[in-house]
Amino acid sequence: MKAKKDDWVRIHSILMQGGQRAPQVPEDTAEVPYESWNKGFLVDDEAEPGSEVTIETSTGRRVSGTLVEINPAYKHSFGSCIPEIFHIDRKLKSIMKEIWR
Amino acid sequence: MNSEYTALMSRKNEIMKKAIAIDYSGFSRGKVAFDYEAMMREVGYSLDEIRLIQSESGVGNTPLYELRNVTKLARHYSSEGRGARIFIKDEASNPSGSFKARRAATAVYHAKKLGYRGVIAATSGNYGAAVASQAAMRGLDCIIVQECYDSNGRGQPEIIEKARKCEAYGAEVVQLTVGPELFFVFLKLLDETGYFNASLYTPFGIAGVETLGYELNQQMLEKTGRPADAVVITNAGGGNLTGTARGLLKAGADSTKVIGASVNLKGLHMASDRQFNLKSFTTGHTGFGIPFATLPDRSDVPRSAGRPLRYMDRYVTVNQGEVFYMTEVLAQLEGLERGPAGSISLAAAFAIAKEMGQDETIVVQETEYTGAGKHIQPQISFARENGIEVGIGNPADEVPGKSIILPEDPSMISAVDLDLDKLRKSLIHNCVKELDSDQIRALESVDIEYMALETKTSADYVRRCLSEISCGN
How many A/B residue pairs have CB atoms within 8 Å? Predict the structure, then answer.
């Protein structure tokens, strides 16, 4: 799917390559690039995911980067079931029954 | 080393000064001292001014609830006559869902008053949403800079939720991978936009929290006829504790014990890419709490207004499993479903209440909002996906970064004391670390008095500590 001008998109950039990181970072962090993501309206007339584009952010800034998502959605959720929580709840109920008695 | 990074960092002071409009150098005294109270007085606002600013934007006057069932539960595990009454200040009722609205309200008001077009804050926490919400109310642009992902693009669900909330208030959110270079991005944005640095650590930010301590005391007087015996405050960067404690003192509650609480994340490096997603708390933990307490001036302003060791009577840690557990207890026993990070002080208060008399009171000073991502279920779920062992057992056996242990029984919840003496000595050591033995011996009373205030000790204590340091040098 191609993105058109004024589509709401997400872009990605590498700000520093691995090996060029700030001197104080631990070893594992020093090896990996420093990356950023921004969202905004596409300024280019048309673009494919993976191409270099410019966006206008909600404060009106123009930012360039690689197009990674068109109409980016929020995908965070309540996660998977954590059965331990229901065990805690059952135990708490039984303790409280004893206390209230 | 990246040349753009080096060039920008060398202009740090100039950019900062423009973005915050405070000349901190005027408060310096002696060799290491600075006049903290003068800074708070001259740059900040009075308590009455802040109450007015906050009431304009719907901030503050949050309810204080007595947690009657949690108190009963604590008494069930206490010895005869023990088990203080536990109260909670429901800060989730603020416009953006946390006490951070108090800090943001003053910062954004100040930015508007000085004529800035927008505000920028560097935060992965609730403060971002607070600044975004206040900026929306006052018609300012807002950019929030977040440390959000590891190098595999995996983000903490809690931080991703906060990004959503910032965007819901119209803010631009810049998301970054792990690393202290966030400060470089932050500086670059300040330089590019000319926006105000809505730092968490300005005098007006911290003064914004004073109303919390003040209100809390008023409410305790109404409910119990006297000030609280203890208030437990989650400690990370130090501003929450500092502001609340100052508010309590301004209300005349000088008998109230101020207890700091942080989640124990011992052994995890905060700037490590690999360890970033092995923790379940992105703030309120020892990884911020201890370094900021012993060296407050490590933030995004030259002099932090958050200086917790000036006010702390006791500092305890609790484990991640205990905090998750108490978050569930709050929902199940009190009908208050709130976010986990707000329950750090609740877990500590539950343990400490058991040591106190039944006629005494202890206040949990905050709650925070909850929702997708920012809830015990997704946070434990995420931990499990990252290889953390999750189980029910004794939380004392929890190893940060390896396991989360939910207590088998509420009796197992304990608050572990940190050695305040050690932290105080560390602060004094940090104050004089640029000086040689002769310079340390030549320090004058203005510096000694300053370090005594910084550590809530005496001039004698500081002199003893300094002589240990200069002998050791």
Answer: 152
Q: Are B63 and B93 in contact (CB under 8 A)?
A: yes
Closest to B417 measured CA to CA, from B229, B262, B240: B262
Distance of alpha carbon B418 from alpha carbon B365, whole angstroms: 20
Let me know: does B181 contact A16? Beta carbons within 8 Å: yes
How many angstroms separate the CA atoms of B17 and B21, rounded? 5
By DSSP bridging, strand A3-4 and strand A46-47 are antiparallel
Q: What is the pLDDT at residue B291?
A: 96
Instruction: For residue B184, give the nearest of B148, B131, B145, B129 by alpha carbon.
Output: B145
Distance between first and last Cα of chain B: 33
Residue B146 CA to its chain's centroid (Å):
17
Buried/exposed B240-253: b ≥16 CB within 10 Å, e otherwise:
bbbbbbbbbbebeb
Which regions in chain B score pLDDT beneath 50? none
pTM: 0.96
Q: What's the length of chain B?
A: 473
> CB contact, 8 Å: B268 with chain A?
no
| CA-based nearest distance A3→chain B, Å | 20
From the DSSP assignment, how many helices (H) and strands (E) are in chain A? 2, 6
Task: Determine phi and psi for A6, rounding to 5 degrees.
Answer: 75, 5
- Report the residue from B180, B184, B377 with minimal CB separation from A24: B180
Residue B295 is encoded by which pair of tokens?
Answer: 């060296």
Of B148, B372, B391, the CB nearest to A84: B391
Q: How does DSSP assign B141-201, residue by residue?
A: EEEEEEEEE-TTS-B-HHHHHHHHHHHHTT-EEEEEESSTTHHHHHHHHHHHH--EE--TT
Interchain proximity B410–A28, CB inside 8 Å: no
> Are B363 and B89 within 8 A, CB to CB?
yes
CA distance B449 to chain A (A): 33
Residue closest to A18 by CA, chosen among A1, A6, A4, A32:
A32
Residue A77's identity, in one-letter code, is S
pLDDT, tens digit, for every residue of B427-471?
A: 999 999 999 999 999 999 999 999 999 999 999 999 999 999 887
Respond yes or no on whether ipTM tops 0.90: yes
In a 13 Å sphere around the CA of B346, the CA atoms on its Cβ side amount to: 34
Q: In this complex, do B329 and A82 lie within 8 Å of one another by their Cβ atoms?
A: no
CB B195 within 8 A of CB B19: yes
Is the pLDDT at A43 greater than 80? The verdict is yes
Q: In a 10 Å sphere around its CB, with 0-12 CB exposed, 13-18 middle and 19+ buried, how is residue B359 labelled?
A: exposed
Sign of the torsion angle spanned by Cα atoms B14, B16, B22, B26: negative
- The alpha-carbon gap from A56 to the nearest alpha carbon of chain B, in Å, equals 10
Q: Does B193 touch chain A (CB under 8 A)?
A: yes
Decide if B173 and A34 are in contact by the 8 Å CB cutoff. no
Q: What is the DSSP letter of A101?
A: -
Q: For residue B354, give Cα distances in angstroms to B82, B233, B347.
A: 6, 17, 12
Mutation site, A15, A39, A63, interface B, largest B CB count within 10 A: A15
